[in-house]
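Bit of a strange request maybe. I'm writing a small parser for C-alpha cell strings and I need a real example to test against, not something I typed by hand. Could someone generate the C-alpha cells for this chain?
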Amino acid sequence: MTISPFFLDLRSAYQSEIDDLTFDSEGRDVLRQRLADKRKEISFLVKMMELSPEMVAVIFHKGFSFSLPAVMDHLLSHEADEFPEWSSLADGIVLTPWAQSLADVVLQEPGGEWFLTVAAGLEYMAGKPGMAPAAQSDDADDDTDEDGDSPDEFDRDDNGDEQGDGQARKEAGDDWMVEQGFDRKD
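Reply from user aminoacidic:
Good idea to test on real output. This should exercise your parser:
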C-alpha cells in the first residue's frame, strides 16, 4: 500500500495529539474526558479544520468504522488536493451516532467534506494494526540507526515483548513540555 506524504506527515501529528490527550500530569488515563470536552468545542474547532486538521480530527477518535478497507487504502494514496468526494467514500465509512452529529456540523462548513476525508483517513491509519510509520515508506529499510534498527522499532526482550514504549512516550512528552516552557517533572 502506498501512503501519500500528506497522510504520512499528518499521521504522526495525529498520533502525537492522541498521545498528548491520553494522560494527565499524574499519569492517569484521561483520554475519554478530554475528547468529550474537545467535542463540546466543535463550533470553535471547525475554524481550525484547514489549518490544523490533525488537532481537530481527534474529536472523531473511535467514531468511524470502515467496511471497505480497500477504499480507505486507496484514499491514503492521495494528496490533500486530490481527494475523492466525501459521498463516494460514504458507503465504506460508518459513523457512530455521536460522530454523525459532529459530522453534520462539519459538513455545514466550507471545506467540511475535505476535512471529514482527512479525519477518516487518520482514524483509519490509527486503528489499522501494523500501521507503524516506519513501515509506510518504500525506503524504510534505508532509514536505520547505528544498530541497524529503524528509529520506530522498540527493543524487544527474549520473549519478544516491547519494552520502553511507555517510558519513551513519557520522556518524549516531558521533553515537549520543557520545549513549551514548563519545568521538567522529576
